Here is the input.
Amino acid sequence: MLLYATVPGFYAEVERVANPGLAGRPVIVGGDPRKRGLVQSATPDALEVGVAVGMSMREALELCPQGRALRTDMNRYRRVASHLRACFRRLTHRVEPAGLGAAFLEPRRPEQSSGELAERLRDRIREELFLPLRVGIAPAKFLAKIAAEEAGITGILRIDSEQVASFLAPLPVSRLPGVGARTAAKLAELSVRSVGEVAALDRRVLEENLGNHGLAILGYALGRDDARLRAAPHSRTLSQESTLDTDELDLTLIRERIEDLARHLEAGLVLERLAAKRVTLKLRFADRERITRSRTLVRPVAAAPELAALARDLLERTQAGIRPVRLVGLGVSSLIRWRRDDRQLELFSSQS
Here is the structure.
């Protein structure tokens, strides 16, 4: 059995935790309503009144006037996502991230109960991050995802093999992978609106009208999914960005921002017990041109002072101070598990 664990409305729920004054109030996260910004995330109480991801923030606030609109803060969400993944990996190494706020998982041992793992995940995330976790358990990845979306107040829903047909049958066809608005409209022309009706349709009819895509949809309607968990032992990259308040020429201020980014990266690396063998500095100038500078290390680093020192050296290889900078980013890659002897910052083996 596979598990799909997700924090519904991840960005919005993270904002609620960051600001306790938002408890009990709908939260809508997205772009600037005055500049046609779009909704990127919303809490369940906002979704219940019609707010939807992708609609304009202005329309969302008209539907939910009591909602609190907040600008997207990707650095905050990445930091919390790092902590979330670390929590997952403390309980099982079989983790496939699915965006910032979700992942597919498997028990680390055959004898470990998937239900027990789901309960421990839910409780751990609530205790450490104060976030609501929903977990779906099913024999296929897409089924586990739908089960998580359908999980009720307990936050956990298990679908066993013998329950798959009855679970899927009443759902609208749009819940199946690969069924967007155009495919749903084509199926409606065939008087097919539910998953059960797809499952009952003659495969030749689906193939004639939708080709191989129709046969793939039929497979999902019958509960079939060949996708396997692609577990990664740990995160492959971590990054942080910061947009400056103004177009900045002051190198002292830019270096201070780099040091702040390095501290956040250190926290993420420590959570997952990782160290980096490659460090990348990214700048966006006032004219919107983006550049990157990177260095690869002989020995890995994880501490903020070393990361900041590397980034400051990379900064010297840019036109910062001559051309105004608007955004600073710092990233690490070639990540490995930290070892006790990986403590000394060494000179760089290569440059790019």
Summary: Residues 285 and 325 are 4 Å apart (CA to CA). Residues 251-271 form the longest helix (21 residues).
